[in-house]
Design a protein that fits this description.
The protein is an all-alpha fold. About 60% of the residues lie in helices and about 0% in strands. It comes from Lacticaseibacillus manihotivorans.
Length: about 40
Amino acid sequence: MNPYQHLTTGERERIFVMHEQGETLEVIGRELKRSPSTISRE
């Protein structure tokens, strides 16, 4: 079983919106329960 999981389209859209609103990677990651490094790669 693969331990990695791709971001969903919905998560990617949420990242875009939150980034446009000026949220930090840490805040976005906490909201989506993902690491900030995952968010930074989007």
